[in-house]
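Worked example 3 (structure in, sequence out).
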C-alpha cells in the first residue's frame, strides 16, 4: 500500500463524512438562524427555545435523507472492502 493510496482513501472518507453530515448540519443551521431572527425581533432571549424546532427538523432531515445517507456509506464501505486485496498486493 503506497502513501498515495492511503491519502486517497482518507480524502474519500472525509468527503463521505462531509456528505453524510451536510443534510443535518444545514437544516439545523437554517432553523437556528430562523429562530434567532425571531428571537431578535421579539426580544425573547431564551437559549433553550431553539432546541425543539432543531430536534424536529433534524428528525425530518434524517427521515428524508436517511436512505440516501445509508446508501452512501454502504457504497463506500463495499468499495473499500472490495479493494482490500488490491491494496495488500
Amino acid at each position: 500500500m503506497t502513501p498515495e493510496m492511503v491519502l486517497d482513501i482518507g480524502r474519500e472518507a472525509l468527503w463521505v463524512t462531509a456528505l453524510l453530515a451536510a443534510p443535518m448540519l444545514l437544516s439545523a443551521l437554517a432553523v437556528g438562524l430562523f429562530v434567532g431572527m425571531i428571537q431578535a425581533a421579539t426580544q425573547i432571549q431564551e437559549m433553550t427555545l431553539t432546541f425543539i424546532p432543531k430536534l424536529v427538523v433534524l428528525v425530518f432531515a434524517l427521515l428524508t435523507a436517511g436512505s440516501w445517507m445509508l446508501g452512501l456509506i454502504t457504497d463506500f464501505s463495499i468499495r473499500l472492502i472490495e479493494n482490500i486485496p488490491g491494496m495488500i498486493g
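Notes: The two ends are 8 Å apart (CA to CA). DSSP finds three helices and no strands in the chain.
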